[in-house]
Amino acid sequence: MIPISDRLPTRRFPIMTVLLIVANVVIFGFELLLDMLGLLEPFIYAFGVVPYRVLHQFDALTAFSFFSSMFLHGGFLHLAGNMLYLWIFGNNVEDALGHFRFLIFYFLCGVLASLAQVLASVNSTIPGIGASGAIAGVLGAYLVLFPHARIITLIPLGIFTQLAELPAVIVLGFWFILQLFNGVLALGLPSAGGVAWFAHIGGFVAGWLLVRLFAIGRRQAIRYYHY
Length: 227
Fold this sequence. Notes:
The protein is built from 10 helices and 3 strands. The protein has 227 residues and is mainly alpha-helical. The protein has a single domain (2-225), classed as Rhomboid-like fold (Up-down Bundle), CATH 1.20.1540.10. Helix 6 (99-120) crosses helix 7 (132-145), helix 6 (99-120) packs antiparallel against helix 9 and helix 7 packs across helix 9 (197-214). The longest helix has 22 residues, at 15-36.
């Protein structure tokens, strides 16, 4: 299932969501430039989260990588998929939490997501990059705040596709189960580049738990949407 949009209106312009998307796109453009210069690989290694380095060679740059890694992507599809999810689900979560709370929430979920991936692959020297851990936190928050919101979803059916309007609890529940399934399958396998399943799992659980704390004092905004 691929979410395309939702039916929830927003009362305010989602400035933080838009700024995050712009920042990710601009930095990806910088990555393309580095790639042409042959400098991308050391850049990714320096600013991505490397589990082995976190546990055995922790320093200021390693600490910063928990933040910087959220703005790095491994290709256009990686970026496009993440930004699509951030736009669909981030604008409403930002509207409910408020701009600055949302931004802090986003970064905190991203850090916790990276920690989850580090703990799941302690000896890996592969740098973890991408906004998906932080965005998974946004998905967890969306599930808590708007479980019955209608999500317009593209469903592949062999060589055909079907558009369907499904409740968020179905779309996001299916997404989370898929991450769990693939994460369990990946346990014990040799380290290799690919999807950071436990970053997705950790980010989603963090968002699902933390949104209640960040929503304190925002009950009116939440009631406006919670149907």
